[in-house]
Specification:
Blueprint: H1 2-20, H2 23-27, H3 42-45, H4 51-59, E1 66-71, E2 74-79, H5 82-89, H6 119-129, H7 135-161, E3 165-167, H8 168-185, H9 201-206, H10 212-222, H11 225-231, H12 238-257, H13 266-275, H14 285-315, H15 318-334, H16 341-344, H17 348-360, E4 366-370, E5 375-376, E6 383-384, E7 389-393, H18 394-398, H19 440-457, E8 458-462, E9 484-489
Parallel strand pairs: 2-7
Antiparallel strand pairs: 1-2, 3-9, 4-7, 5-6, 8-9
Helix pairs in contact: 7-8, 7-19, 8-14, 10-11, 12-13, 12-14, 14-17, 14-19
Length: 495
Amino acid sequence: MFVYTLGLLAVALYLTLRHIYSYWARQGLPHLCPEIPYGNLRALAEKRESFGTAVNALYARSPERLLGVYLFFRPAILVRDAHLAKRILAADFQHFHDRGVYVDEQRDPMSAHLFALPGARWKRLRAKLTPTFTSGQLRQMMPTFLAVGEKLLDQLGPLAAEGHVVDVRDIASRYVLDGIASVFFGFEANCLRDPADPFREPLRDVNDPNSFVNNVRSAGVFLCPGLLRLSGLKSLPPAMRRFAREVVTRQIEHRERHPEQRRKDFIQLLIDLRREANGQEALTIAQCAANVFLFYVAGADTSTGVITFTLHELTHSPAVMAKARAEIDDMLARHDGVISYEALQELPYLDQCLKETLRKYPGLPVLNRVCTQDYPVPDSGVVIRAGTQVLIPLLAYGMDEKYFPEPDVYMPERFDEQAPKYDPDAYYPFGLGPRNCIGLRQGIILTKIGLVLMLSRFDFEATVPCKVRFEPVNVTLMPDGGLPMKITVRADRAE
C-alpha cells in the first residue's frame, strides 16, 4: 500500500512539473528550455552567479524580443527590447502598475512597504511620502550630509597618510549608513569610526550570501512569492524585523511625547502623517518600520554601489579621473571650499561619470513588473496575460552594444548632452514612470558629497583588475571580496 501511494505521489509530482514547465510551449511564446527544479536559474541556485548576472545570461541566449523563462517554478517574460520596456514602465503603466514581488500585510507587515505594495495601497502611500524628497527638503538635509562627510574625511585621513590599502566598498557602506541613520532613523550612528556599530549588523545579516534561509527569502521576495507563503518564512530575518521595529518605535514614541523636539528627517514625516490622518487610516508602527527599513537597505546598497564602482572605474581610467577631479577642484575654488546643494549642481562631468557607473552597475540589475490587465504587445500578435511576471534586465541593456557602443569601456562622455553616444530609450537605472525610485535625488546627493570629498583630498590606486566578479546570490551587485584600493593624500594637498 505504501509503495502504491508513493508511486501515485511521484506520478502526480511529475505531471505537475510537466504542466508548469510546458507553460510557454502551450502559450506559443519563444522560450528557454527549463531544468527541473531550477527553471532557468540553475547558476543562481548553485551560488555561481548573482541574480542580475544570472538573468543577464538568459538575455544573451536568445535574439527574441519577448522570451519566456522560468524563475524556478514561476513562468515569466524577459523583455529583450529596451524600447518596449520603457513603454511598459511609463506610457502603458496602467497595465503594469504592480511589481509582483512578495507582500503580505496581515501575516508579514514588514513586507508592506512602498517598493512592494500593489495598486491603490501603493499609490496612497507614495503620495504621502513624496514630500520628504523635494528639493527644499534636500537642501535642509545638507548640513546632516556634510557632517557625515566630515566623519568620512576624519576616518580616511590617517589611512591615507600611511598609504594603506582599504576596502572602498566597506568605507563607502559605513559612510552611507551613518547618513541614513541620521536622515531616516533620526539618530547618530557611528559606523565610520566603529565597523562593529550595532546599526550595521542587521544589514550584514540580510546580505549574508552564506545563509541558506536568507537565500530562500531573497528568492521568495523577488522570484517566487508563493515560496514564502508555502514555507511560512517571513521576508526579513528576525533580527532585522526586531531592529527596525525597536528603533522606529523608540523614535516615534519619544517624539510624540516631546513634539518640540522636531527634526528634518524621515521619521518626523511619518509622525506628521500619523498625526494628520484626518479620519483616514493612520500609518501603524509596523508600516512606519517597514518603510524605514526599505530606505535602510535600498539606500545603503544603491549609494554604496555607485560610490564604490565609480572609484573603481576611475582608478582604471586615469584620464577620466583627472577630468573629474579638475572639475571638482574648480567648483570648490569658486565656492571657497564650501559644498552646497547649488554647488553640487555645477558638476556636469561628475554627473556623466555617475550615469556611466549606473549603466554598468545599476542599483537593481533587474526590474520586476506584473501584468495587471491583458496587454496586447505593440507591433506583434502577442498578448501578455494578466498575472504574468515581467522582467526588465537593466544590466543587460547597459551592456548591449546595440544601445551603448563599446559597452565594456568606461566612457562618461557618452552622456554628454550636446553629443550623446547612446540610446536614451534604453537608460533608466532607477526605473521610470510612476514607480521610479522615490529616493533618487537624495541618494545622488549623498553619493556626490562622498565622491567630492574623497577626490578633492586623496589619491586612489587600483589593486585589483578592472573586471569585477559579483558576489553570488545577492539581488544587488556587490563586488566579491570587496574592492581594495591604495589610498594616499594628494600631492597638492600634503602639508
